[in-house]
What does this fold into?
Amino acid sequence: DRQSVVESLLLYDRKHRNPRNFYGSLRKLESMSLVQKSVGNYHYSMHRLARDFFVDYLRNEGKLETQQQLSVELLSERYPYGDQSLWTVCRMYNPHAEKAIKYKRPDVWPRAALLRSMASYHQNCGRHATAFKLYEELQKIHSSNKPLSIKQEDSMVDISLRAAQMLGMMSRFDEGEKLLQDTMGDIKSKVNPGKPQLIHARSLQAW
It folds into this structure.
């Protein structure tokens, strides 16, 4: 995409191949002025004309959608899901993630994993409206891809509770309470009283 890419994202390799091959390839591209280092030599960017040429090449070869799906899968594995200590990495990856979640391919679950990590980041940063939109998109993915596995069912409950919490933070209390009541009704018959989701739901209800 149009953003410079941080080295840790480019270097990630599921096959754990020797990074010397990566740096050797980059040196060749740099020597031809196709890529440039920036921001303390930890980011790489490509000239707009070169980028457009490669995008057109992939499209003409019928490989663009495959590469887009791979970018979603890579970001879903690399985008951190966690606390404030990971915000720097999230901030660097976020421009690429924003682009990647627009790629709607048949395999929806890598995209769902990326959306969830992004939503958590925005929620922790206090961007409640942005987080809610991402949780809302996650709800649509889960609702339209049933039957779900037990893990996916648990994930959907957690997403619904977080969406209800975001509605409350935006003072949309009636909508948040309705979503919370619907979620509570759905999980009461399925989980034991000590289940974390039910405890979370009751704490939101009290709040």
